[in-house]
Amino acid sequence: MKHTTVICFANNKGGSGKSTTCSNVGAALAKSGKKVLMLDGDMQLNLSLSFLDEDKVLEYAKSSNNLYQAIKEQKDLKDYIVSTPYENVDLIPSSTLMSSIEYELFTKWQREFILRKLLKTVRESGTYDYILMDAPPTLGGWVLNLLCASDYLVIPVEASPWGLFGLANMFEFLQTTQEMAPGLSLLGIVITKVDERKNYFKQTKESLEALEDIHVFSSLIHVDSTVEWAQDNSKPVINYKPGSRSAKEYTALAEEIKTILQEA
Ligand SMILES: Nc1ncnc2c1ncn2[C@@H]1O[C@H](COP(=O)(O)OP(=O)(O)O)[C@@H](O)[C@H]1O
Ligand SMILES: [Mg+2]
Question: For the whole prediction, is pTM greater than 0.90?
Fold first, then answer.
């Protein structure tokens, strides 16, 4: 039986590389022989689109077999898992209706812990080494659910002038969540979309490394158009072009995560 580690990729800033990092770390972990469940917590369906083609994703989004329906009806998530074309990767697909998930949560008893409760069977079944969750760029009741169901948070931060903006809100939100879910820790910050020709990359890195008691992953994720070509083909870059720079970087990040967790 496997011990299952749940990691959420979140940052209230949109475009910081959450979905791309989450999907490719998942694909890299799977390639290294780990069994991974990807949970798409965003109405933009980007995590689902990383593994399945658009028709399939829209089919799930319109059906009753998606995360939104499970939360709405408080159904065990074990019955919402679908397979992907990739070995060791399963998925819980999302729906555009996730836009109204806050409304659904509002009336429910112990609403912060609904996802944790619905994920319990899957987690305790020992089927997966990792459950990776992609969050929307908000800090509300739904992201609170994602974090309360997680062991670890990874914050992707874009190496851009606005990349750090709002990070203080994210830390504050994490602290509040930890009061409800003491088992949750920050695994680290990953710097994404790095362009070393630009000065603000250095600034971002220095500012993040100056934060006390916060791990900044040494694996950097550079801007690479192969990532976008892979997304255009509904594939993780790990599988689309295994020899590419970005495939190697996401693989290195996944290895770094595994190493930290074994030490943790
Ligand atoms: N390493 C990368 N190289 C090039 N483009 C990237 C990279 N990572 C993310 N992107 C692009 O940046 C945009 C935002 O990334 P995404 O993962 O969707 O962020 P988020 O989920 O935080 O909104 C997307 O268009 C994506 O294709
Ligand atoms: Mg996203």
Answer: yes
Q: Please, which residues bridge with residue 188 across strands? A: 154
235 token code pair: 């594939």
Lining ligand 1 with CB less than 6 A are 14-20, 46, 137, 192-193, 221, 223-224, 227-228, 231, 246
Q: What b-and-e string marks burial along 6-16, b requiring 16 or more CB atoms within 10 Å of the CB?
A: bbbbbbbbebb
pLDDT in tens, 178-194: 999 999 999 999 999 99
Residue 264 pLDDT exceeds 70: no
Strands 36-40 and 130-134: parallel
Distance CA 214, CA 217 (A): 10
- Please, what are the domains in the chain? 5-263 (3.40.50.300)
In 86-194, at which residue ranges do the beta strands (DSSP E only) sit?
A: 89-92, 130-134, 152-158, 185-192
- Residue closest to 135 by CA, chosen among 119, 148, 126: 148
Rounded to the nearest 10°, the torsion over CA 255, 259, 262, 264 is -120
Q: Which atom of ligand 1 approaches the CA of 14 most closely?
A: 23
Find the 199 Cα to ligand 2 centroid distance in Å.
25
